[in-house]
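Task card 7
Instruction: Convert sequence to structure tokens.
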Amino acid sequence: MRRLIIIWTCLLIVGVTLLSAQASSTSELTRADVEELTQDIDYDQQRWTLTPRHKPELNKKADPESTPNLEVGTVGQVLQYILVLGVIILVLLGFVYFFMADRADRDTELRESTGTDIEEGEHIEDIDPLPLLPQAIADGDYRLAMRLRFIELLKTCSERRLIDWRPDKTNVEYLKELNAHMDTTLATALTARYERTWFGQYTIGRDEYEYYAPQFDSLISDLPTR
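Output:
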């Protein structure tokens, strides 16, 4: 997280520095143009005379030599707008990346604190989630309790050879494998609720957990054995 903050701060400083440098160079260029245009004028020898004002002729093409050269100023303004837009985009990307990284850090801390993460090389059949369930309920952590019940469901399916458990598989793949042996209507509903609760950071209360807990028990008891 500290590394992210340092990188983002450096990007912001670079963007602001580039913007200031561009604005300064544009200002100096404008002054140089003015000096070049006025260097041959001798103000001491200028005489002021009144001349009649003529109406401009319509549809008369402008003389290219008499048209002010606005290319330099226009390009400078465009570059300034591009730099400002770039800084704004960097700010938005920084906030999005900061939010995603912060959420990932919270998930990692939560898995480490609960001890329910499946380590690399560890098989789900070697995990026993039920001893942790009473403590989760006592602590009022029903989100964790839902995860423990779902791990219990996957473990039982693997033990009964209804699914081929692998750490890189998705729950959708497990449902497809389970569908070859039984109706998966209830399993699909419980999987959707679990994913919303655990991965969607959805907080559930005691009443909601007690509504789903018997459904997990019913599904596990109805699992066939191969």
